[in-house]
User: Which sequence fits this backbone?
């Protein structure tokens, strides 16, 4: 991570920042000297988090699936803080279970939040950054951007889509002064992942992801996988014959259909996706 002086006064926006990974990103960023705007569909939760984390924080209502909501959010943030230096696309939802039992509402919600929400944020914020010649957009994707665990087919599809989108936009922004980064964590100990299995990777904490965000700001890089050994492992397996790759993947990547059958995720999935 860079020194504290590097972050002093930096304006950061964190979507889905009222709890979980987003909250930890906001907290670590504020501790490092950033001024942080927390956007969340739970406006009261965003404000409570901002109040709890202290000076330099503000909470706002934000629905990343709604263009008007996003524009109004950005207008309020820039009026309160000034130009945005860092946008962290953190908002995300996940339904887990057999592909043929996934409710249509859950499918639509994952596409709307995980894909269109990220695209909307980039499309609205990157041009403002490019006009100033400086800025950084960081997206919390997932190891599911490279893998596709059983039971998370649509979720993995959304994360594959996001990584593909960011790859193309990054090239379009080359030379503009706008950095694009994607953080790809394995399973993180949050409500979104509750009841899922970790496979061969260790369970991560929200702090691990927050630290990766600050590290990416201090030393920009496009893709950060956590734990760090997952990236080379996935790349290496990609060189193997399909039959051997399948066998290794079944040993390392958790079967979330089985895990979800043994856990009660209904409260989260109903609240997050109405499903």
Assistant:
């Amino acid at each position: 991570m860079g020194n504290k002086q590097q972050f002093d006064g930096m304006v950061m926006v964190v979507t889905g920042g009222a709890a979980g990974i987003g909250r930890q990103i906001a907290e670590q960023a504020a501790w490092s000297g950033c001024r942080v705007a927390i956007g969340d569909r739970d406006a009261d939760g965003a404000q409570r988090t901002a109040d709890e984390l202290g000076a330099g924080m503000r909470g706002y209502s934000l629905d990343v699936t709604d263009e008007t909501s996003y524009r109004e959010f950005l207008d309020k943030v820039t009026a309160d803080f000034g130009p945005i230096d860092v946008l962290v696309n953190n908002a995300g939802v996940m339904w887990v279970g057999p592909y043929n039992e996934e409710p249509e509402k859950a499918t639509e919600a994952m596409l709307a939040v995980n894909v269109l929400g990220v695209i909307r944020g980039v499309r609205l914020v990157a041009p403002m950054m490019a006009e100033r010649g400086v800025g950084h957009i960081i997206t919390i994707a997932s190891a599911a951007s490279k893998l596709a665990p059983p039971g998370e087919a649509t979720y993995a599809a959304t994360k594959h889509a996001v990584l593909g989108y960011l790859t193309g936009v990054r090239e379009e922004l080359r030379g503009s002064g706008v950095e694009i980064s994607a953080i790809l964590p394995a399973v993180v100990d949050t409500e979104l992942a509750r009841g899922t299995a970790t496979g061969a990777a260790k369970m991560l904490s929200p702090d691990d992801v927050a630290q990766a965000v600050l590290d990416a700001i201090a030393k920009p890089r496009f893709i950060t996988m956590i734990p760090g050994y997952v990236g080379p492992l996935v790349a290496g397996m990609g060189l193997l014959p399909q039959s051997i790759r399948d066998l290794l993947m079944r040993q390392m990547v958790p079967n979330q259909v089985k895990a979800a059958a043994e856990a009660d995720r209904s409260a989260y999935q109903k609240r997050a996706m109405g499903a």
